[in-house]
Amino acid sequence: MYALAGACHCGNVRFRLQSTLPAAELQVRRCACTFCSKHACCYISDPQGELVVEVRDPALLASYRFGTRTADFFVCKECGVMPFVTSEIDGTTYAVVNANTLDAAKDFRDRAQAMDYNNENEPQRLERRRQHWIGRVRIAAK
Questions:
Q1: Structural domain containing residue 98
Q2: Which CATH number covers residue 92?
């Protein structure tokens, strides 16, 4: 397993992604939706990996839903950074990590591939997440 650590700017939200893939093999995706574009987000995930998120002050963590309302975009209220996204599908929480919030973010930025998911219907979107997003997710208050 390979470990990648990251956090929001103020450190209220910290996470560790345990990946079965080395960093160089993780696909980096830049979503073309207006929210992700405005936040300059690039995402990584490993369907066989595990994401552990620790939140120092849960009152400072907000989630935002838009569009199909099938994903929660988590934003730290203290610093405004969006470190991860989750989607609840059939009782399982799936997630992607904003590569720009990784401690080693510079290793990912130049590899981002533009992705446009606007033509997906809701079942297609959920199936893509089920297949490509992190399937073991734990979010805990510190």
A1: 2-141
A2: 2.170.150.70
